[in-house]
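This follows on from our talk about sequence and fold. Go ahead and set the record down below:
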Amino acid sequence: MQSKRPDGFHNIATLFYPIPYHDILEVVPAASTALHVSGLSVESALEDNLCMKAYRLLERDYPLPPVAIYLHKAIPMGAGLGGGSSDAAHTLLMLNNLFRLNIPEQQLFDYAAMLGSDCPFFIQSQPALAGGRGEILQYTHFRLKGYYLQLVFPGVHVSTAEAYAGITPKEPAMPLEEILKLPVAQWKNSLVNDFETSVFARYPQLAGLKDQLYAQGAVYAAMSGSGSALFGLFEAMPDSLPGSLTISFN
């Protein structure tokens, strides 16, 4: 976390990396606009959902007909995995394609940035170094080929506002792009998630899960974003921890 901005946001330095883990989203013409949610429970009002906000945002500038949005939630909320942001970005993409709005890609990025700091990443979903508040993207050739990634979901909801409130901004000792050039086994002492200090203090079980990932052979482990999900990178298929999902990049 590099610094706090005059607008109240923080300047960050992070790597956004897409993984094959999805919600399910469908948008179809309908008699009236409505959002239908299934799967994991969504506590917010439907009109406050980012999918609906994406529709309302485009509706201001384009003559959109009514639609039914069907969202099946599989990605936990408050886990730092960008599930809601991905849903919002893909709602923009689907409306653009469904109604042939011909919105230029840069304008789609701009719309996505209005919905959330990390939403622009999901317009292309390519590995990217992210700066600014998360909307400034520099695509990278970095890949996790040859590794296994284990995600662990501890069942704890960490709000983004809560996580940012505990941050003390500071300049990193080494630029992120230089750290990523190091062997993954050397990241442990160099690649730090600044959210962990305050979030682990509030939820010590998350620190315990990180230790478990290292104990079973992870070459690197960290909290994902502002939490609460944790991940470990392994050179061989790991044993499954409770509430975990393992993805192979072979």
DSSP finds eight helices and twelve strands in the chain. The CA atoms of residues 86 and 122 lie 6 Å apart.
